[in-house]
Design a protein that fits this description.
Layout: E1 15-26, E2 29-40, E3 44-48, H1 55-63, E4 70-75, E5 78-79, H2 85-91, E6 93-96, H3 108-118, H4 124-128, H5 133-146, H6 162-174, E7 180-184, H7 192-203, E8 211-215, H8 219-225, E9 228-233, E10 236-242, H9 243-247, H10 250-257
Parallel strand pairs: 3-8, 3-9, 6-7, 7-8
Antiparallel strand pairs: 1-2, 1-4, 4-5, 9-10
Length: 261
C-alpha cells in the first residue's frame, strides 16, 4: 500500500502556506485528490510528479485560477480558500507561468514596472501612469538586475532569447512582492547551461518573508537546489519530506522514475 504523504515544515518557521485536503474536480473526476503540503517561511519546495499528475492544476488552485471542490488554502495564517485571484495576489501570492506572455510593445523595464504598479489597484494600466511611476521604474530596474537582466532593461521581449524571457517572468512575479512565489516549470525549453543558471537564480529567491514552490521536470536541478520535495501522482500526494529521503522511496521511484526495484 502506498504511504500517504505527510506535510512537513521547518520547526523554526511558522507556515507561510498550508494546503489542506484540496480536491479539484473536472467532469466528476478528481484532477487533484486530497493534496496536502506545508511551506515554511524562507523555504524552497520542489514539486514533482509524472505528466498528468495534477501539478499545474494544484498550482492554479493555490493561486485562485481554479476553485477546489473541497479543502482549504491558508496564506500566512489567513484562509484564502474563498478569495478571488486578485485578492490572493494582493495578499501575497504570485505565479510565474510556464507559457510566457510579456507585453511585446513594452521594454523589459516597463513590463516589470507595470507589474510593480499594479499594487492594490484593479487596473494596472492606470497604476502604470500614476504619480509614483518613477518609483515603480526604480523597483523594476532593481528586480531586473536581481534576475541578471540589468544590461537589457531597455530591450523589447522580441529581441531576446527564451532564457532572458524566463527571467523576465520571474521579475514580473517578484514585482508584486509575494510571500509565496509559484514557479511553473521555469527551466522548460532551456539548454543545460541556461537551466543551471536559472536554477542558481531560483535557489537565491527565498528569504525571510518570501517562500518559493518550484514545479519542475528537471529532476537533476530540483535535487540540487531544493531541500524539501513534494511528489504528486495521479492527483494524489505521494511523498513529502527531505529531498534525498523522498527520492529514495520505492513508491516515488516506481511512479516518477519508472524503476521496478
Amino acid at each position: 500500500m502506498t504511504q500517504t504523504a505527510k506535510p512537513v515544515t521547518s520547526p523554526h518557521h511558522a507556515p507561510m502556506l498550508e494546503v489542506k485536503d484540496v480536491t479539484v474536480t473536472f467532469g466528476g473526476l478528481n484532477a487533484v485528490d486530497g493534496a496536502e503540503l506545508v511551506l515554511g517561511d524562507n523555504e524552497l519546495l520542489g514539486f514533482i510528479g509524472p505528466n498528468g499528475a495534477g501539478k499545474t492544476t494544484l498550482m492554479r488552485a493555490i493561486i485562485g485560477m481554479l476553485t477546489p471542490a473541497k479543502g482549504r488554502i491558508i496564506l500566512d495564517g489567513q484562509d484564502v480558500s474563498n478569495r478571488r485571484i486578485v485578492e490572493r495576489i494582493n495578499l501575497g501570492m504570485a505565479l510565474a507561468q510556464q507559457i510566457i506572455k510579456p507585453l511585446k510593445d513594452m521594454t523589459l523595464l516597463d513590463n516589470v514596472a507595470l507589474a510593480a504598479g499594479g499594487g492594490k489597484l484593479l487596473s494596472p494600466i492606470k497604476a502604470m501612469w500614476h504619480r509614483s511611476r518613477q518609483y515603480e521604474q526604480d523597483v523594476a530596474s532593481a528586480l531586473l538586475a536581481e534576475v541578471g537582466l540589468a544590461a537589457v532593461i531597455h530591450k523589447y521581449p522580441s529581441e531576446l532569447p527564451l532564457g532572458y524571457l524566463k527571467r523576465l517572468e520571474v521579475a514580473r512575479a517578484l514585482a508584486r512582492q509575494p510571500k509565496v512565489l509559484l514557479l511553473d516549470e521555469p527551466l522548460a525549453g532551456l539548454s543545460k547551461k541556461e537551466s543551471e543558471e536559472m536554477a542558481d537564480l531560483i535557489m537565491g529567491l527565498p528569504r525571510q518573508g518570501r517562500s518559493v514552490i518550484l514545479i519542475e521536470h528537471n529532476l537533476a536541478q530540483v535535487r540540487r537546489i531544493c531541500k524539501i520535495l513534494y511528489v504528486q501522482n495521479n492527483g494524489r500526494p505521494l511523498a513529502f519530506g527531505k529531498t534525498d529521503e523522498v527520492l529514495a522511496k520505492r513508491e516515488v521511484q516506481l511512479a516518477y522514475l519508472g524503476k521496478t526495484e
